[in-house]
Specification:
Blueprint lengths: L15 H8 L2 H13 L14 H8 L4 H11 L4 E3 L4 E3 L1 H14 L6 E9 L6 E7 L2 E5 L16 E6 L10 H19 L11 E7 L20 E7 L5 E5 H6 L2 H8 L5 H8 L7 E7 L2 E9 L2 E9 L3 E4 L8 E4 L4 E9 L2
Antiparallel strand pairs: 1-2, 3-4, 4-5, 5-6, 7-8, 7-14, 8-9, 10-11, 11-12, 12-15, 13-14
Helix pairs in contact: 2-3
The structure holds zinc ion (ZN) (3 copies).
One zinc ion binds next to loops.
């Protein structure tokens, strides 16, 4: 295998399958684990201090030194790097160990129907937290939540992958709060085009229901969603993806933050109390090329009006919800103008 010595973690020319097969051995996994145990983040925050061959060997406790040498050399350059001073874990090696720790602290965990104390942002009913198959679900027992699509559980308000370690020593509402923090931290870099899992490039798209018409239960028959505009982000490298509401995007915009803050609402506090992003909002597409969106955020007699605009490379149908929205590929939204007007 040919590769450059100065690459920190990406080793060109090695397939994921080859990397997985390198880990398919008990001694090699034991080497990584021992190196992680020997490493101290306090004394060596940048993981630069090398471990000696004999220290690692003593920690792994392998009798046959030739065998040990072979397995350590197999890990070298991918998960372990050998320098003149000794051996240290690479970023990829640390990632492997951390992925194991995130998932292995507990036996498979399922949590059914815990009351959170946080009201549904649509109907005010106390929401339910469920943990199933490594995913956290926030559900409303009383209304459709965001969608009636059968791709999601009834009453869905949020769902995302969440490691079992996040459930350790936490009550239901603490798990929810940890989940919200985790989710916000994962989605923030995606809106800037950076994957939170691998740092790769993220493709951005805007999903719009062209003929959005909510019925009595608030759900549109055509797209099966309550809200007409969604943002879709997909990593080109590792396929990490997220789809989330326009409100997630608005939550971080300075005009929105300051509009609410000047009126005594800290959106971060409010996010913790309600598990939603902004107060009531409505959004419409006013032009197709460039894609232009007008948003209204009313609050106590005032309205923050925002103009959002984006150019895009192509459009195509979006069948994900079982409805008929359009997806604008390569669309990167920005706020073009805003004003506060009186609603009285
Ligand atoms: Zn509800
Ligand atoms: Zn619709
Ligand atoms: Zn990625």
């Amino acid at each position: 295998m040919e590769h450059s010595k100065d690459e920190e973690h990406d080793v060109p020319g090695v397939t994921p399958r080859e990397l997985f097969s390198l880990l398919g051995n008990e001694t090699r996994v034991a080497i990584l684990e021992s190196m992680w145990e020997l490493w101290s983040p306090e004394s060596d925050p940048y993981n630069r201090e090398a471990l000696s061959f004999s220290d690692i060997r003593a920690a792994v406790d392998v009798r046959d030194s030739g065998n040990f040498n072979y397995h350590l050399s197999q890990l070298n350059d991918h998960f372990v790097r050998q320098t003149e001073e000794g051996y240290r874990l690479t970023n990829a090696g640390l990632h492997v160990i951390r992925a194991v720790l995130a998932g292995s602290l507990t036996d498979p965990v399922n949590v059914d129907a815990l009351e959170t104390g946080v009201p549904c942002s649509y109907c005010g009913t106390v929401t339910i937290l469920r943990y199933d198959d490594d995913h956290l679900y926030l559900l409303c027992p009383n209304c459709p939540g965001h969608t009636t699509s059968d791709r999601w559980p009834d009453g869905i308000l949020a769902s995302f992958g969440f490691p079992p370690a996040g459930l350790q020593n936490r009550e239901a509402n603490e798990v929810l709060q940890a989940g919200l923090t985790w989710y916000d931290a994962k989605t923030a870099p995606m809106m800037e085009g950076v994957c939170p899992e691998c740092a790769g490039e993220v493709d951005e798209s805007v999903v719009v229901c062209p003929d959005h018409e909510p019925l009595e239960d608030g759900v549109c028959e055509r797209c099966l969603m309550v809200r007409p505009i969604w943002l879709l982000y997909e990593c080109r490298n590792c396929r990490y993806w997220r789809i989330f509401s326009l409100e997630r995007f608005l939550y971080d915009r300075p005009p929105v933050v300051s509009f609410f803050f000047e009126r005594g609402v800290d959106l971060v506090d409010r996010r913790r109390e309600t598990a939603s992003y902004v107060l009531e909002s409505d959004a419409d597409v006013t032009s197709d090329d460039p894609l232009t969106i007008r948003v209204r955020l009313p609050f106590e007699g005032d309205v923050l009006r925002l103009g959002l605009e984006t150019t895009y490379d192509s459009t195509e149908p979006f069948g994900h919800y079982g409805g008929n929205p359009s997806v604008y590929r390569g669309a990167s939204l920005s706020v073009t103008d805003y004003e506060v007007v009186s609603d009285r």
